[in-house]
Design a protein that fits this description.
This protein is of the alpha/beta class and 315 residues long. It is built from 10 helices and 14 strands. The protein starts with a strand and ends in a 7-residue tail after the last helix.
């Protein structure tokens, strides 16, 4: 697991992290999110032992980062955003080098390299020079290097930056495969990527925790208006505007007597299931024939913009 307890860090007069506390349960893939300057990179650097906090404590796996820094470093596999790899080394050679840095015994290195080569699907390039690889394969090599010593915690900082959509999807699949065996902290600005990859989210702003939990938890916490999209024909649907909780009703003709209704409803603490049922009942009483009735989930960008209070959202 990962535990950050009342941690603060300042650089001169700038408070980068301010009494931050959060936990990532063991075996989960956690999205680490926030606007630029939120404190994500500083927190990651403290977790991997690159810088020390001014106050508070951090734990990775079973290790206290300050009290037992060597054990803590051995407990963390880290793939930084700037994944600098030696272009003149072949993949196997580089992974053996990383085994040595991790302290993997020479007799165990062959098995360790074979394990991560298979895990990260590097069989076809293991004899090639790193400098000859595509961006996608270089990221896989970086991930494999972070896994050679089977660390309890894996920290990935913007790992899919610069990858094309197909390669990024494949990389997300590799990250998801770590679930259960490792605790993963996945920092990214791509909210759709995070939602597709992570089961737990931690959101920072101005060095402080704003919210944590599942995507559904954060949507409830930062509730924004939800839309119902309805395709119907016949009946008087003007009564929808009188339903408590309905903010706005827009209509668009689809031809052949069919209409698309966009019904904006409150989210907040209101029971959306009950509100949706009320809307459906009003339409039934109005004599409308419905062929499509769908609730449109608000994008995380809208939710995060409300949570952090930034008009541009979490970038």
């Amino acid at each position: 697991m990962i535990s950050v307890d009342r941690v603060s860090k300042s650089f001169g007069r700038t408070r980068a992290v301010d009494h931050l506390s959060f936990e990532v349960p063991r075996g989960l893939v956690c999205g680490f999110l926030g606007p630029n300057g939120a404190g994500k990179t500083t927190t990651i650097r403290m977790l991997v032992g690159a810088i020390a906090p001014d106050e508070g404590s951090l734990r990775v796996g079973t290790a206290d980062v300050q009290r037992d820094p060597m054990l803590a470093r051995r407990s963390v596999g880290y793939l930084p955003e700037s994944n600098a790899l030696p272009p003149e080394a072949c993949v196997d050679e580089y992974l053996r080098f990383r085994c040595g840095l991790w302290g993997v015994a020479p007799r165990d290195q062959t098995a360790a390299v074979a394990r991560v080569v298979e895990r990260c699907e590097l069989q076809s390039v293991r004899r090639k020079l790193v400098g000859a690889l595509s961006r996608g394969f270089r990221q896989r090599v970086g991930l494999a290097a972070s896994l050679v010593a089977s660390p309890a915690v894996v920290i990935l900082d913007e790992p899919a930056t610069g990858l094309d959509p197909v390669t990024a999807q494949a990389f997300r699949g590799l990250v998801q495969s770590l679930r259960g065996e490792h605790t993963v902290l996945f920092s990214s600005h791509n909210l759709a990527e995070v939602e597709a990859t992570c089961e737990h989210l931690v959101l920072l702003s101005n060095g402080r925790l704003v919210a944590q939990g599942t995507a559904s938890d954060l949507r409830r916490r930062g509730a924004v208006a939800t839309r119902l999209e309805i395709e119907c024909t016949g009946g008087d649907v003007g009564a929808l505007g009188a339903v408590p909780g309905v903010i706005e009703v827009q209509s668009q003709s689809l031809g052949d007597g069919w209409t698309r209704m966009l019904v904006t409803v409150e989210s907040g603490d209101r029971d959306l299931a009950t509100l949706t049922t009320q809307v459906a009942a009003v339409m039934q009483r109005a004599g409308a024939s419905v062929r499509r009735f769908e609730r449109i989930t608000p994008p995380l960008e809208d939710v995060f913009a409300r949570l952090v209070g930034a008009p541009g959202g979490a970038r």
